[in-house]
Amino acid sequence: MCSGTELVSEHASRNLHLLLAKRPEFDKGDYEEAIKAALTDEDSILLNNFKTKTTEPAVSGSTVAICFINLTKGEMVVANLGDSHVVLAERDPRNDHPYHIHRLTKSHKPDVPSERSRIEDAGGTVNNRTGTARLGSLNMSRAIGDLQYKNPINKVDDSEASKKTRRASGSSDPGSRGDYLSNVPHINRQTLQSDRRYVVVVTSDGVSDNIDDTTLIRKVLSLSMRGMRAGDIAQDVANTTASKPGSDNGSCIVALLDGQDS
């Protein structure tokens, strides 16, 4: 799932899974490294589009949530950038009620101490002028796109993108700047048991900011017990959260797993 500005998020939604499948690490079962490399490949394509087609990738970006499941081996690898999330829960075989509800992803916010340190080490600064910690205009510290906050664009001292970057930067020497905004994901690997039932829900911040994980999972399984299919449940969750005042765009994916028979 990719959630952000239209050009970048749609491009990633169309291409990121293809880039992942092409990685040699993927064929070797090294899914973590394959995901990292695919995200770097996506940013490289966006950089090329910036150089040859449009400036949009420099000023637009997207969060990412990836969930890869190998049912044959019972392997589940989750990765995210920004504030899109993946929640996993087990389903009681007797009544389908959820338990062991876990958010497998991590929010990447500029004021998290480790993120602030990384940004400052790269020559950037975190500001709170709007009351929300931001890296430049962004309220997150990891994403694809938004190349004005990444090498090589943030090292170019005479571009319009660089002028915006300098306002977010504490570095006077463009050549010493690192990536203020990172595309290195948080990754979590889980082992799924073949005799257990699970539910996986992937959401953008438009959903996760409006409903806590436990309530979300209970809602999903309540609708499932009424006979709704996973796709319809996801649409219901997205529509419900999007209808709330002040809500952001909500995206949701639901998967109901019945062991290796899914």
TrEMBL record:
Spans annotated as Disordered: 106-133, 149-183
Record-annotated PPM-type phosphatase domain positions: 1-257
Cross-referenced Gene3D superfamilies: PPM-type phosphatase domain (3.60.40.10)
PROSITE patterns from the UniProt entry: PPM_2
Cofactor(s), names only, from the UniProt record: Mn(2+)
Entry EC number(s): 3.1.3.16
UniProt-listed SMART domains: PP2Cc
Extent of Basic and acidic residues compositional bias: 108-121
Family: Belongs to the PP2C family.
UniProt protein name: protein-serine/threonine phosphatase
